[in-house]
Amino acid sequence: MLETLDAAAVRRWCGAGLESLRAHQREIDDLNVYPVPDGDTGTNLVLTLTAAYEALGEETPDPGRPVDRLMRRMARGALLGARGNSGVIVSQILRGMADTFAGAVAVRGRELARAFRTATDAAYAAVARPVEGTVLSVVAAAAEAAGRIKSDELVVVARAAARAAAEALARTPQQLPVLARAGVVDAGGRGLVLLLDALVETVAEERSRDSGEVGDVREVGTRRLGEKDFMTAGTDAEAAGDCEGHGFEVQYLLDADAAAVDMLRDTLDRLGESLVIVGTGDGTWNVHVHTEEVGPAIEAGIRAGRPYRIGVTRLERRRPGPDLRAAVVVAAGDGLTALFEGEGATVVDRNPSTAELLAAVRATGAGSVVVLPNDANTHAVANSAAREATAGGIQVSVVPTRSPVQALAALAVRDDQRPFADDVIAMAEAAGACRYGEVCTAQRDALTVAGPCRAGDLLGLVDGEVHVIGDDVTEVSRRLLDRMLGGGGELVTCVLGADAPAFLEERIREHTHRNWPFIELQCYTGGQPRYHLLAGVE
User: How far apart are CA 150 and CA 110, in angstroms?
Assistant: First the structure.
C-alpha cells in the first residue's frame, strides 16, 4: 500500500484509468439519456485519456520527479485530445489536481483532498451553465467526502472520495429528470467513478506495478537541441537570403522562469513585432516573433533559458488591407461538406478533439476565425480550441450552433466588410433565429415528452426535444414540419441524410406546396449519418 502518490504512481494511475475506461467503453456509450443515437461518452473519455497517456510517453516513471510536472503533462494532453463535454471536464479536473500538487514530489492524503476541491472548482468553471446530476455532481461529492477525512493516509482519502462518487452517481437520476425517464445514471459521472476506482487500486497496490502500462499507445519523444544547434539554426536562417523588407517568423519552445521570460519579452519587443509568448503553466513557454534579426532573437532565448524546437520561416511582404477571416464548421456527410465548403468554410468531421479543431483554425491562416460546432456536445471542445488559438494570437469566436441548418443560416449573413465582433453577433443572431428539427431512428426503448417509443421507431425532434413518434419517414417528416411551421416562418431548409429514401424530397415539396404555399423551401442532399432529415425554419 502506497503512503504517498509520486510521479511513478501517477503514471500507473493514468494507465489503469485508461484500461478501465476501455473495458467499460460500450457500457458508458449505452448510458444514453435519449433514444437519439448520440451515445458516445465512453468513446470520448477513452480518446481523452489516450491523449493524456500519450503525453506521458516521454516521461520515465521516476519516483523523484515532481508530481505536478507529470500531472500537468497529463492534463494538457487530455485537454488537447478532449472530445465532448465530459472529456473537457475531465481534463479540467486533472488540471485542478496538478495546480494543487505544485512543487510536490510526493502527495499524502490531505494534499489529495485539497486537490479534489481544486479539481471541482476547475470543473465547474469550465461549464458555462453547470447542471447538477452530471459529472460535476460526482466530482463535487468526491471532494466533499475527501475533505471530511481527518486522516492523512492516502488510501483512506482516495477510498472515501471513490465511495462518495459512486453514491453521487447513483443519485444522478434523482437530480436530472431526463436520466430518470431513461432509467440510467450519468455517463460522464460513470467514467469519473472508474477513474477514481483506478486511483484507489493504484495507491492500494491492488494491481501489479506494470498494469498501468497500456498497449497500442504511441510513444512521444522530443529531441532537445544543444547550444550549437541554436546558433547553427540562427546562422543558417540569416544566410538564406537578404531579409530586408520581408523578415522572418521565429518560434521556439522555452524552459525558463517567469522573471527571465519578462526580460525576454522586453528584448524581443525591441527586435520585432507580432510578439506572442504563452506559458503552459509548468515553466514551458511558446515564443513567437516576426523579426529581421533571427540570430539575436534566438540568442535572447538562450540567455533566458533552454530553447528547443526552433523554427525559422521567411515571411512574405505583408499586403495592405483587413486581416484574413475564416470559418471552421463541424459537419459530416459529403453533401453537407460541399455546402459548407461552397460558403468558404473549412470543414472538420463530427466529434473532433480540441487538437483537431485547433489545427483546423490554425490551418486557415486567418487572423480572425469563427467556429460553428453544430452539436451541443462539441461546444466545450470548440471553446477549448478557441482559448488555445487565442493564446497563440488568433482571434476566435464560437457561435454555439446546435445543428448544421443553424450554421447555414449563420454563414448566409457573414460579411467580411464589417468589424469581426459585429459579424459574429450577426451570425449568432441568425443561428438563434433558426429553429432546428431532426428525424432519426430510436436506438432504444424510452419515455419521451411525446410519449413512449421503442427501438426502431422514427422520431421527430424540435430544438432537441422529441415531438413526433411514428413508423413512416414521410409521415414523421410532414408532421415535424407542420409542428415547426405552426410557430411561424418564411424559409424552410431541408437536408436529406444518407439513409433518406429517394422519394422523401418530392413528398416534402408536395406537402409544403399544398399546406404552406407561401413558404420558401430549399432542399439539399447532405448525406449525413444518423439523421434522415435535418430541417431549419427561419
Answer: 8
C-alpha to C-alpha distance for 328 and 346, rounded to whole angstroms: 5
Q: What is the pTM of this model?
A: 0.67
CA nearest to 96, candidates 120, 76, 80, 112: 120
Max CA separation in the chain (angstroms): 78
Task: State residue 531 phi and psi, 5-degree precision.
Answer: -105, 115
Rama region for 274: left / alpha / beta (φ>0; ψ in -120 to 50; rest): left
Per the rule left: phi > 0, alpha: psi between -120 and 50, beta: everything else, 375 is beta
- Vertex 139: Cα angle to 1 and 143 (nearest 5): 60
Are the CB atoms for 225 and 255 separated by under 8 Å? no
AA letter at 129 = R
> What would the pLDDT profile of 486-495 be if each residue is shown by its tens digit?
989 999 999 9
Integer Cα distance of 385 and 396 in angstroms? 9
- The amino acid at residue 313 is T
Distance CA 481, CA 403 (A): 16
**Measured between alpha carbons, how far is 191 from 183 in angstroms, rounded to an integer?**
17
* Sheet strand arrangement including 346-348: 346-348, 325-330, 368-372, 395-398
Q: Which residue bears the cell 467514467? A: 191
pLDDT band at 61 (very low <50, low <70, confident <90, very high): low
In single-letter form, the type of residue at position 477 comes to: S
Question: Which tens digits make up the pLDDT trace of 226-281?
Answer: 332 322 233 222 222 333 333 676 777 788 888 898 899 889 888 887 565 644 45
Which residues have CB under 8 Å from 518's CB, separation 6+?
A: 490
How would DSSP label each residue in 243-271?
A: -TTT-EEEEEEEE--HHHHHHHHHHHHHH
CB burial string 214-247: b at 16+ within 10 A, e below: beebeeeeeeeeeeeebeebbeebbeeeebeeeb
Q: Tell me the pLDDT tens digit for each residue of 193-237.
A: 999 999 999 999 865 433 444 444 322 222 222 332 322 233 222
CA 254 remoteness from chain centre = 26
* CA-based nearest residue to 304, from 256, 270, 271: 256
If one counts every other C-beta atom within 10 angstroms of the C-beta of residue 66, the result is 18
